[in-house]
Each structure stands twice: as structure tokens, then as C-alpha cells.
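[Automated response] Your request has been received and processed.

Submitted sequence:
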Amino acid sequence: MSTLGAFLTNLQESVSAVAQAVCGRPTRSASIPRDIREATALSAAATYPSSFGVAMYGPSADESQYELFSEPSGHLYTILDEAVSKVLDIVDLSEGTGSSNDLLTEQLAPLGQRAMKHIGSLTAGLTETGVGVRVTWQGREGTVRRSDWSPSGLQRVHLLCEESEFTEAETTTVTGWLGAASSFRGKVEIRTDDGAIIRASTDEELTGRLDEYFNKRVEAEVEVEKVVFTGGRERRLYSVLSLRKLAG
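Generated structure:
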């Protein structure tokens, strides 16, 4: 029971933290916004005859306070499905001796320090007890996904999360064309004047105004954070703090 209880707590924290990263800019320590927590809240429906299985479900579809996460198509709660899907992507990539840690770090790094900390805790308890996990998730659209997490896969993810190091964020200014923007996910792409492509999350205050800057030349104040994984692999995370339109 202690193994299952700790797993469920860490699963909830992992899903909520991943959802925050999906929606925009992940944070290290500030509280996850209430609407994200509510949209990703998992509830237990039943336990299996043994004490190591549980059925869960997300928020009901008729609660209007979650409309913040509706898609243009009108579908709601995709933020929960997407967060769970990203956790299961990590599960699947960790399995098999032929899987590259580069693919895992590409999935983990954009989730930020908070999510990686919770995923590290999620895998730690199972690694210590040598327990694997089988997950079946049915999304809002009825799609069913199944993933199996072996003790060796759990240990692999645990080591990547626990032995990673985040540097202090630095702020820089870049100029270029803002060629892609998502107000639903708080993401932008900027082609800088030197030809580089920066994919960045946006500050919450800025996300709702991204349409003002789409396909325009901008000056962006960007926060850059580096994460160093075991083995020396490095990934950079970019967050746009402010934007200013430029002529031409």
C-alpha cells in the first residue's frame, strides 16, 4: 500500500507539472495555477482485488470552468490527455536496450525542473521496490493507449532526472521574425537575424497577446536556462518574457 500510495501522489504531481509546461512556461517553485490543477485532477474510481492496482478518471466534461483548455475544435480537457501522453512517451522511450538517452532527454528537458523532479520521485519509489507498472489510458476522444514500465526502464528515467543539473537562468535580447505562435499552448518560434530558430514558451501575461506579433519582426527578451544531463548531454530552454514589434 505504501508503494501504491506514493506512486499515485507522485503521478498526480507529475501530470500537473507536465500540464503546466505544455500550457506555456514551466516554473521551478511558484504554485501551479489552480485552473491547471483542476483540469488535471485525477480521482480514484476503484482498486483491483490486489492492493497494487487502481482505476482513475479525470474531470467531467460538463464543468465549464475548464473551458480555458478548449481547442478550436471545441474539444475540452485535452490538456490532461496531453500531459498523460507525454508521461507515457517517456515510459515508452525508456524501454528497450536500443533506445537512445538522447531521445529521452529531448522529451524531458522541455518539461522543466519541476516536472523532472516529480518524475524522478515517481520513478524512485518503484525503483527502490523493483516494481514495474502497466498503464492503460483512455483519452476523451476514446483512444486507448497502453504502456508497460519495467524496473530497468524506471531506473533509467530516475537516473536521468536525479542526476540532471539546471543552471541559473540568463536573460538575453534577440531580434528576428516570429513565424509561429500558439495562444493555446503558449509557444512561439522566432527566426533570429543570424538564421537560428528559437522555440520558446511565453510568459503567462504575454500568451494571450501573441496574435499581435505573429509574422512580424520583433525584439524579444528571452530567458535561457540550460539543463545538463548525465553523460554531459546539454539542452537549452527558452522562455520569452516580453516582445516588441520592430519596423520592417
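Summary generated for your ticket: Residues 63-77 have pLDDT under 50 and may be disordered. The first strand starts at residue 43 and ends at 47.
If you did not submit this request, please reply to this message.
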